[in-house]
Amino acid sequence: MGRKENIQTDNKMRFYVFEDERFVDLNLYQFGWEKCRPDHLFGPAARSHFLFHYIISGKGWLDAADSKFHLHAGQGFLLCPRQVSTYCADPEEPWHYAWVEFDGLRARESMTLAGLNERQPVYTPKNPDNQVLPDLMQIIDNHDKAPLRLVGMAMVLLDEIVQTSRTKIATGNKSLRNFYMREVINYIEGNYQRDVSIEEIAANRGLNRSYFARLFKETMGVSPQQFLIQYRMTKASELLKGSKMPVTEVSHAVGYENPLHFSRAFKNLYGISPSEYRRRHAYQTPEP
Fold this sequence. Notes:
With 288 residues, the protein is an alpha+beta fold. Helices cover 41% and strands 23% of the residues. It contains ten helices and eleven strands. A seven-stranded antiparallel beta sheet has the order 1-2-3-10-5-8-11. It has a four-stranded antiparallel beta sheet with strand order 4-9-6-7, with no helix packed on it. The radius of gyration is 20 Å and the shape is globular.
């Protein structure tokens, strides 16, 4: 577990695929850099996770949310899950950028605090002379570290994006909304193994179900039901890859009494059955 595949095509591009899905708050999927050719274009395409680019040099443009953004060195841009976008290097000064693809419970919250979203994808630093963010991007790219170390560095990177963003949203020390969401997530983490309902989660926090559902989706970007399913399926994928537990027992371990319902939910999210997922991720004894 925690293997990182290093793929190199030539001296103008490098990226790594992060192969450890145990991290729920923040998980990495890939990161790297590219020195693009003039007019090099990518898209239109949509991603499954957040993808942040930081422009080291050069310039280019991004077409997203029915708007075209012209970007230059020192800026960055965020591509959100399921958002269709196109971006292209300048014909005279093609950009050289670093990127990191990520997701998790803290992902949307961090990007929201930075003032970045589908409609406003452009990161501009408050202080153009601050080199902490590009240095962090380089540190992550250059270090072959253990998964926990890489995820920790990515956490610092996200915080740096939030703290240095010109569009950072001002918040109090403890907003009521963040308090509720943290409490709700803690409750889900502690009770996903049983047949817990959204009504129960809302009632446990003393919230009206409709108000809770709206508050949750505004904060997390998905409905409480979608979040609960995704959380359970993430835990199920860990059990399928990291143990020899029968699929029926995996189903019960993540709160599904009916294995058929579990298999259907798993396939809806991963595109394959739990058994096929296990075949593709054969059990291996974790490395010391």
